Amino acid sequence: MVEGTVQVKMVALVQRVSEASVEVNGQITGAIGPGLLILLGVHRHDTRAEADWLARKCANLRIFSDESGRMNRSLRDVQGEALVVSQFTLYGDASRGHRPSFTESAPPEKAEPLYRYFVEQLAKALGRPVPTGIFGAMMRVRLVNDGPVTLWVERKPKAGS
């Protein structure tokens, strides 16, 4: 690994749910039945390429049960829904002191367009609209985790890069 190389990119905390919703100021802005709740963190070095990769990964992640009870079906396979919520705190660094640092999170002017682009790409991959929270708002997220199944999804850097 070359010193100074960026190792961390856009991440998704993916939770398989039987239902989920997000509320802003007492109004539900997005709700789904069975599917995935995706908390999305945008890194300060992210590009559309990261959003493309992550949207494909989330749509095709085989974490739903097949007829044998094995996690062998994707969100696309089961015709499930997805709810995406922006979550800059996924890049919170609490390794020093007691107050997390968010310097690795993309600033809002960069993060919001990439968040919206990710949602568009996921909607294309699923062939249906993808509800969301409101970027930058204080949100209340409710979910019923199914399994529970929760995964941290990010692209690892290639060896030698």
From TrEMBL:
Q: Which family does it belong to?
A: Belongs to the DTD family.
Specify the species.
Rhodothermus profundi
Q: Which PANTHER family match?
A: D-AMINOACYL-TRNA DEACYLASE 1, D-TYROSYL-TRNA TYR DEACYLASE
Q: Name one GO cellular component term.
A: cytoplasm
- Kindly list the places in or outside the cell where this protein is found, as annotated in its UniProt entry: Cytoplasm
- What is the catalytic activity of this protein? a D-aminoacyl-tRNA + H2O = a tRNA + a D-alpha-amino acid + H(+); glycyl-tRNA(Ala) + H2O = tRNA(Ala) + glycine + H(+)
Query: Care to name a GO molecular-function term for this sequence?
Result: D-tyrosyl-tRNA(Tyr) deacylase activity
Q: Which protein, by its recorded name, is this?
A: D-aminoacyl-tRNA deacylase
Positions of short motif Gly-cisPro motif, important for rejection of L-amino acids: 147-148
| Subcellular location, principal | cytoplasm
Protein keywords:
Cytoplasm, Hydrolase, RNA-binding, tRNA-binding
Keyword Cytoplasm attached: yes
Q: What is known of its domains?
A: A Gly-cisPro motif from one monomer fits into the active site of the other monomer to allow specific chiral rejection of L-amino acids.
Q: What is its EC number?
A: 3.1.1.96, 3.1.1.-
| Oligomer and partners | Homodimer.
Q: Which InterPro entries match?
A: Daa-tRNA_deacyls_DTD, DTD-like_sf
Q: Does the keyword tRNA-binding apply?
A: yes
Q: What does the record list as GO biological process?
A: D-amino acid catabolic process
Q: Briefly, what is this protein's role?
A: An aminoacyl-tRNA editing enzyme that deacylates mischarged D-aminoacyl-tRNAs. Also deacylates mischarged glycyl-tRNA(Ala), protecting cells against glycine mischarging by AlaRS. Acts via tRNA-based rather than protein-based catalysis; rejects L-amino acids rather than detecting D-amino acids in the active site. By recycling D-aminoacyl-tRNA to D-amino acids and free tRNA molecules, this enzyme counteracts the toxicity associated with the formation of D-aminoacyl-tRNA entities in vivo and helps enforce protein L-homochirality.
- The signal peptide, as residue positions, is none
